[in-house]
Amino acid sequence: MAGAPYDIVIIGGGITGAGIARDASLRGLRVALFEKDDFGSGTSSKSSKLIHGGLRYLEHAEFALVFESVSERGVQMAMAPHLVRPLPFLVPVFEDARVGLELLNVGLWIYETLALFRSPQLHKTMRGAGKVLEAAPRILSDGLKGAIEFYDCYTDDSRLVLENIISAEEAGARCEAYTEVLEILRERGQVSGVRVRNRISGEEEVVETASVVMATGPWSDKVSPMIKAGIKTPLLSPTKGVHAVFPHELLPLKRAMTIMSPIDERVMFAIPWRGRTVIGTTDTYFDGDPDEVHADAEDVQYLCDSANHLFPSANFTPESVIATWAGLRPLIHEEADSASDVSREHQIYVNDDGVILIAGGKLTTYRLMAKDTVKAAIRWMRDWKNDHFADRELKRPRTKKRPLPGGVGFTDPSANGVKALAETLAKESGLPLTLTEHWAFTYGMRAKLLSEMAIENPALQKPLQDDLPHTWAEIEFAILNERTETVDDVLSRRVPMLLIAMDQGLDIVEATADRMAEIRGWDSERRALEVSRYQTTVSQSRLFRGS
Questions:
Q1: What local confidence, expressed as pLDDT, does residue 533 receive?
Q2: Taking the model in full, what pTM does it have?
Q3: Structural domain boundaries enclosing 249
Q4: What is the dihedral of CA 32, 369, 35, 213, to 10 degrees?
Q5: 317 and 247 in one domain?
């Protein structure tokens, strides 16, 4: 054990695993992370793209969870001002509402008190239908009593994962995508290593480690046989969340809107996102294979019907859907009346053999989940016959203050600081401000690298689609600098044409594969396979149409 090259091996490269790798490596621990697909390709890229305090948790008196969430929202805004941005939300109140306007107003004061009044802006109360219709002209007016406007934040969840991975690697962690852990190895009843296989090359390797952290999200029960003993299963009650992306013109929003579904009274959102309108999410129990989660016809019809009730003139239909995404929430197993009632809190399980498992939680609180998990691993290593570890001096990771890679260098770590960067880049490069602003709010300070690439090669300034800000510079940057192994990595997550392009990136998949083949040295067979796999990904996102 004293000779183990790693203190911690992390299984799972979603936001939780990436956060753990960052926290642990910044402390000076020797860390390896293995993800069987792309970083963040599971639940962590299938969220509602929101960093929020959980206003609805107040209804269940989960004050600690709300305080934790609103505090972390503030931390993340400072850590990554380019990725975590304020977004106004409008909550309409109707005559038959379970929670009236004045009670909701009181709830928002409690919410902002728990945030220590550090919300991006304090809430506003709109009394009467007239003021609400000025803010949201397409909303249902019958029975409308007023609305509350408050602020939370939205994010790019895939990039939040990626920047944590980059930060962990900069601190010394080994992070490998497309590498599956086949087996946890033990000697004398304690963890001694893992056996892994690279899913692209097929090569296997034994990696020695003092402990194993399983951050496998919805896959926790599927991989639980590797735990062997000590943790009671099932661990989770996973629920499926589906989102549908529509053309902006169907519902041109400037604010996110809360929707109370008339079907089951579930709260969901209509969100302006990347020049499109997103409706979501569903919340239904799921007991299938976590690798086979897709939106079905019933999911999409539910979203359309729910949104059409609040916005009668929008006429959302399955035929108007650009794309869908579907993911599983790894919620702790418990008895609840409905999927929406299951707690979003996390739990950490520690086995005597050195296996630590983190389950539950949500995107907003990933940093705290990572901190708690690393501390649990350290306690185990110091308590269980790891004499070589007892005298190790570890550093404070300072993840609460340390910005993510794209946030390093901002003198004003806020949206204003990101806008100032965009203005500087536009002035220095002569590129359009709309382009440099898009880059600044996507890559943060790393946008300087894209600007340099685009100046050196003007062909990279060409847009990928006329109504979107994305350019070929981003494809090039993703291939060269963003840990991509496949065409799907590039077009689904780094430059998410899968979710926002009208043809979901099918018109550029060949050219993207050509460029990756040129840079990576792929032969014609590998190139054709990459194109085919991406086409399959697009087809899977359209399964709700029966095609």
A1: 98
A2: 0.94
A3: 84-154+237-341
A4: 50
A5: yes
